[in-house]
Amino acid sequence: MIIRRKHTSNFTVIGNSVVDDERLRADEVGILVWLLRQHHDWEVRRPALMRHWDIGPVSTKRIINNWMKHGWCQ
């Protein structure tokens, strides 16, 4: 059972298009949602993503390449 909570503070609004994009794998959606909640001027660094998500360089490259392929980053 999924437990839905009512949020009144400290929450993020994300468009459904991110989670509805069937071209993205679960890890790609999850990390992308996490990135979209960061401050607008926040800079993405591959080593930081790898440390935070405990993923290796091959997975990181696949994730970022797939985002670029489908227009989620440049």
Give the topology, please.
Elements: H1 16-20, H2 26-36, H3 46-53, H4 57-69
Record keyword descriptors for this entry.
50% helix; 4 helices
Structure description:
With 74 residues, this protein is an all-alpha fold. It is 50% helix and 0% strand. It contains 4 helices and no strands. It has helices spanning 16-20, 26-36, 46-53, 57-69. The radius of gyration is 14 Å and the shape is globular. The N and C termini lie far apart (37 Å). The mean pLDDT is 94.
Question: What's the short version?
Answer:
The protein is mostly helical. It is built from four helices and no strands. It is 50% helix and 0% strand.
Let me know the average pLDDT.
94
The biggest beta sheet, please? none
What global shape is seen?
A: globular
The arrangement of helices and strands along the chain is: HHHH
Helix content: 40-55%
Number of strands: 0
Strand content: under 5%
The Rg value, from CA coordinates, equals 14 Å
From the helix content, strand content and strand pairing, which structural class follows? mainly alpha
Distance between the termini: 37 Å
Our count of helices gives 4
Unreliable parts: none
